[in-house]
Amino acid sequence: MKHSQSKYPSFLTFCAAAVITVGPVFAHASVLDIESNAKIAPVATTTDRMIVKYKETGPVVPGASLMAAGGKERLAIVQRSGQQFGLTMKALHTTANGAQILKLDKKMDVKEVAAIAKDLMERDTSIEYAEPDRIMHPLFTPNDPRYSEQWHYGDTTGGLRLPAAWDLSTGTGVVVAVLDTGFRPHADLAGQFVGGYDFITDTKIANDGNGRDADASDPGDAVAAGECGNGRPLQSQNSSWHGTHVAGTIAAKTNNGVGVAGVAFNAKVLPLRVLGKCGGYTSDIADAITWASGGTVSGVPANANKARVINMSLGGGGACDTTTQNAINGARSRGTVVIVAAGNDNVNVSGSSPANCSGVVAIAATRKDGGRASYSNYGTLIDVAAPGGDTGGLILSTLNAGTNAPGADNYANYAGTSMATPHVAGVAALMLSKNSALTPDEIESKLKSTARAFPATCNSCGTGIVDALAAVKSVTGGTTPPAGTTINEAEANNTTASANAVTVSGTVVKGNMGSSTDSDYFAVQLPAGKTLSAALTIGSSSADYDLYAYNASGTQVAMSENGAGVADSLSTANTGTTTTTRYVRVKYYSGGTGATSGAYSLKLSW
Q1: Is the pTM higher than 0.90?
Q2: Is 418 annotated in the active site?
Q3: What residue range is the signal peptide (predicted)?
Q4: DSSP character for 112?
């Protein structure tokens, strides 16, 4: 061995992540109490904000767009319209598409704000659209009893048929955005998150002392009775840690001997905080949708971890608003599928936004016997259903033990369409990991066409219960490269979390060491009983790069550290009974760098 001990790569932490879903309903309110089968509180119908989009022809200008062309006249019209309804309005900020957020000096019924918006449009023909900035809320139905197993993955009647799908895909290389209450650090989610953001602009809702920032951690969303206005909620409610529960279903660490498993445990979760005390505003949620999918939001740094899946387990009543629909359209145009919870009010989903928006995958919830959960919304706009839990069994995932402020790690059983949605977001991540060329429409179509028939009554619940195995199998053909193909390395792939997926035995990867600190990672789903062989050839005889292999937990299992001018090769066997992940790493040691001097070829076979 030519190198000193210091050359050995350090232990790699195994990371997993997930997908995201959408769907509005009143935070903590409109939550079904499984024990009493009674509603805790009705859906919130008030807001103190309005969204106004002017017909601008130039680029979006950050700040108070009311003061752009015709600003004084526009401001005067706004003031007159407010006076007509006995209130004042002021400009707060602009959204990603240039819409102006107006702050009302009091909370009003959404219908009243809609009337003000209509009056404003009639007064000013330069307005493209105006609408209430409605407040959305988490969708879930908590229950105290804890179950020690996740029936919702493998149960032959009501489960997701997930374990067999893991033999084909575990979500490697896919980022799932979770638009929710943020996240709590948790031992079973360590390393599963990538750089999130807090999009909440209202400091009271944020409950963290500030507005938008790069800290997406959840400080808690506990509220006292009546704190949210108009007597809501009817009783005090503890912090939900809703986003942490959703994230755990998508990407909790698996095979680590701790806690629970995630649907797409080798995916990554992008946590975006849009819900806090009493919910969250449509305008903040729309900006988060835009940013998660790779769009630009004024004042927010560029997103380095574009999500291919957005999970929105949130919602509210009413038709899909223009602001949300525009954000969804933008996300879809950038290749991101948007998955949304149908809602927990046992009503037609046509009245629940954003599940009723065009282009989303709307998810109903089923119980353990495969029938519709008693609380789940339904209707022709539902695409598919997934396990959401009910009195016969709930959904176990990661949580926090704090009743108000954060406490210790724990786990809890919840029920709701909020719990069904991350199951589907996780399956979407499994599909994309297997075939990254899938479009949002193709993902939706394949989820629907491969869903299995309901084993119990579930009228107007979509085409069936999502079948993880069938969905992943449906995307393995067509665009899969033939054996012996050559592909190019794709940056950034400097960690196991961002490893390039290699799906076909015999593939030759063409790459290069961009700098003296460069490392390139490649991920292979190695079937049981198979041996992975890696052979590294370097273009320059004076260059010295080395080769390492790691198991799914990040432990080094093989290495080759030959000197300059000598090829490196290694092999590692899967002696287990199921498919597992192997990571192969090419690491710079000495010699040339760059596209020419740093070029290498890596052949992976199994």
Answers
A1: no
A2: yes
A3: 1-27
A4: H
